[in-house]
Amino acid sequence: MTEQLLSASVASPPPVLDSIINTLAEQGWVIDRSLFTPQDIALLRDECVQHWRQGEFHEAAIGQASEQRRLSEIRSDSVLWLDEDNAPPAVAAYFAKLEQIRQAVNQSLFMGLVELESHFAVFPTGAFYKNHLDRFRHDDARTLSAVLYLNQDWPDDAGGEMRLYLDPECQHHLDVAPEAGTLVLFLSDRFWHEVLPARQPRLSITGWFRRHTGNVPW
């Protein structure tokens, strides 16, 4: 029954995609709270917690390839990369909905997105991620970032907001609470952002839509 409900939830593109695409085209970022159902989020949260309890996460690093390193003064979360080809039902439903976004973006905005890479992210109490862009120094394939939050009934005083800077000088920002079902999309090379310290464990899925480039990752 669960698999049937998940299949039904991603069977056809929802009308909300038009609103997402229009807003993304206008301002380069968009927040949606309707694409993922409470059931979708509950199943994803259960999946994330199960893998965390099994010790499958690893401390997140910064950089790429030979430059990759762990710098706890910059980020202190842990991650688990997701395999779309061997995904359990809840994660498969996530990939299916993000695929709808990829196709809609390509059709309307001609971004040339070809794939999605994603991981679960857990921010233990006190964890943070300093201000950064979602682009590697020598690889500009990441084009559109997608962050989906899995935290039910997140208290107002629990911290953990994503601070999205709306200008290159980082003078103006929007704080997004990591409430369950909130999806944030933004152009990876344009918007600096950070995760403020969380006062309780914080769960999410972070993804990046990639395009083909001629650059090499080293």
Automatic annotation (TrEMBL):
It comes from the Bacteria. The keyword Chloroplast does not apply. Keywords: Dioxygenase, Iron, Metal-binding, Oxidoreductase, Vitamin C. GO terms for biological process: cellular response to hypoxia. Its cofactor is L-ascorbate. Residues 97-211 form the Fe2OG dioxygenase domain. GO terms for molecular function: ferrous iron binding; L-ascorbic acid binding; peptidyl-proline dioxygenase activity. This is 2OG-Fe(II) oxygenase. It comes from Paludibacterium denitrificans.
